Amino acid sequence: MLPAAKLVMTVLGDYWFGVDEYVPSAVLVAVLAEFGIGEDAARAAFSRLCREGRIERSRDGRRTAYRLAEAARAAAVERGRALVAFGAEPVAWDGQWTCVAYSVPESDRARRSALRVRLRGLRMGPLFDGLWVSPHAIVAEIHAALGQAGVEEAVVLRAAEVPRAGGSDLLDAWDLGALRVCYDEFGEVVAAIEARLGEGALPPAEALVARTDLMARWRTLAGADPYLPGVLLPADWPLAGARRRFADAYDALGPLGELRVRQVAEAAGGELGRGPRHHRLAELA
Q: Which SS3 state, helix, strand or coil, does residue 100 take?
């Protein structure tokens, strides 16, 4: 399960999305307890997130309440849009690869590591040592990554592959076999949820945790998948099917998750305004 600070952001984003009202701390503590987070850990997370400017605090006497900071609300909207878009449509391709070749001394490990982290964040794959590739037109983003890592000895190219018998497969830049295993494991999680929902045997408390866990798993997949053009992938690549099942399960869990948050909030004596309210995946676009 997610750490306490990430759970705070996730719960606020899932059930108070687009709402600027403050949520009583007692309510948030009670909701986090559903995930096995104790009060001390919850309140430490609140303090940390306030220091980082990710949530805002309001005090009325001894009553404390929190909400997402404005910048965090904007970031939540962008993340929601990205997660909705991921896998929704086939990726078109113009046949061109974006490549970056760079030279950083082996002794300068900090810069090498910093650049690799940034290139992976752009969904690029390492074809050879010092040569990374992507089918996406991300020239400006690569230049920014090179600058942020302080790497000057580099070239960025947009080029078409010239097939060579016995040569390397550009798709080897990514471990698609391991990624397929991740999709298979995700499918097993969704199948278990589908079965429980179909039987009507999923209580609200379990649905709340399952929905958050499902979104966390989907977010991990979205970060790991290079989102390659369909023409490069096997016909049975699982992304599109996994997305459909994820969306259906996430939406189906929403009403039960919201019900549990309301039950917990009312038991904690919290005053409920416009939230909590669940959102269908499409509403996050």
A: strand
Contacting residues for 285 by C-beta, under 8 A, at least 6 apart? 80, 81, 84, 85
Closest to 228 measured CA to CA, from 180, 186, 187, 188:
180
Out of 3.10.129, 3.30.70, 3.30.1450, 3.40.50, which CATH number does the structure's domain 97-159 have? 3.30.70
pLDDT tens for 45-100 read 999 999 999 999 999 888 899 999 988 888 888 888 888 889 988 899 999 999 99
Single-letter amino acid code for the residue at 173: A
Do residues 9 and 72 make contact, with C-beta atoms less than 8 angstroms apart?
A: yes
Q: Are 138 and 239 in contact (CB under 8 A)?
A: no
Q: How far apart are CA 146 and CA 152, in angstroms?
A: 7
Q: 3-class DSSP state for residue 128?
A: strand
**pTM (whole model) above 0.85:** yes
The owner of tokens 């390397």 is 168
Question: Which three-class secondary structure state does DSSP give residue 201?
Answer: coil
Do residues 99 and 159 touch, judged by C-beta distance below 8 A? yes
